[in-house]
Amino acid sequence: MTTTATSFQTSDSVGAIVTRKPALARIFEQAGIDYCCGGKKSLEAACREKGLDPQKVLAQLEAAAAVATGGGGVDAAKMTLTELADHIQTTHHAYLKAELPRLEAMTKKVAAVHGEHDPRLPQVKEVYLGMAWELKEHTLKEEQVLFPMIRELDAAASTPAFHCGSLAAPIRAMELEHDSAGGAIEKIRELTDGFTPPEWACNTYRAMLDALALFERDLHQHVHKENNILFPRAIQMEEAKRTA
User: Fold this and answer.
1) For the CA atoms of the chain, what is the radius of gyration?
2) Residues whose CB is less than 8 angstroms from the CB of residue 46 and which lie 6 or more positions away in sequence, other chains included
3) What structural domains does the chain harbor?
4) pTM here?
5) Residue 42 bridge partners (DSSP)
6) Among 188, 185, 211, 198, which residue's Cα sits nearest to residue 21?
7) 128: left (phi over 0), alpha (psi -120 to 50) or beta
8) Quick one: 29 exposed, middle or buried, by C-beta within 10 A (0-12, 13-18, 19+)?
9) 8 pLDDT higher than 70
């Protein structure tokens, strides 16, 4: 029996671990460990059944718990436009690509299983699905159109001849889509009582709410870096190079 910095032990049941820290559900999902119906099994037993080293899984849980409770930040204000665009794409966009399908499956499952008990859950699913579709399109447009333009501007001695005239129009379109996503996650927060699970919620329900709360936090960081740092600086640089 091994004690970790997060006070988890290999003798703890996998269900208890997810109950205490729902964000860790993704570690069990990746390992193929059933933390819901099989939640009474100890971490040691669940890992042995899957041919996994319990200590290695324990280390993964520790690392994931550290990220979920704090993690390190970056000083976006000190990055070049290219560095910041790259950072957003490799962190926040990568997070969306991994998390959007996972949350889609969870919202559908929880709505199907518990929708009769709480009629707001099908609404959560529908709002989420609409938001997810928009964000997939949004990141594609940024990666294929806007970010390459920003990188080109950053590297150029003078203002490039963009097909749309300037960065202002595509940036404004992205900001409007940010507003839409922000409104959707706010609606989901309202429908879930601030991502608070009812007493009767199963582990999957709790994991879904915890994932949505983390999603909201990442979305806020993501939009902040674009709306308040990347976009204004890009417009400022474009204007400066145009008048130089």
Assistant:
1) 21
2) 14, 28, 33, 34, 38
3) 14-69 (no CATH), 76-243 (1.20.140)
4) 0.77
5) 13
6) 211
7) alpha
8) middle
9) yes
Helix (H) or strand (E) holding 61: helix 54-69
For the range 7-12, what are the long-range contacts, defined as Cβ-Cβ under 8 Å and sequence gap of 24 or more?
A: 8/43, 8/58, 8/61, 8/62, 8/65, 9/43, 10/42, 10/43, 10/44, 10/47, 10/54, 10/55, 10/58, 11/42, 11/43, 11/44, 12/42, 12/43
Q: 1 pLDDT exceeds 50?
A: no
By mean pLDDT, which of 59-73, 146-160, 178-192, 215-229 is the weakest? 59-73
How confident is the model over 144-174, as pLDDT tens digits? 999 999 999 999 988 888 888 889 999 999 9
CB 205 within 8 A of CB 38: no
The sign of the torsion formed by the CA atoms of 34, 101, 54, 6 equals negative
Residue 203, token pair as written in the block: 């582990």
138 token code pair: 């949004």
Q: Which residue type occupies 140? A: L
- Token output for 127: 């709002």
Closest alpha carbon to 33 in 213, 203, 212: 203
Number of H helices, E strands in the chain: 11, 0
Please name which of 14, 9, 4 lies closest in space to residue 203, comparing C-alpha atoms.
Answer: 14
Q: How far is residue 50 from each of residues 30, 150, 232, 235, measured CA to CA in Å?
A: 12, 47, 50, 53
CB 79 within 8 A of CB 233: no
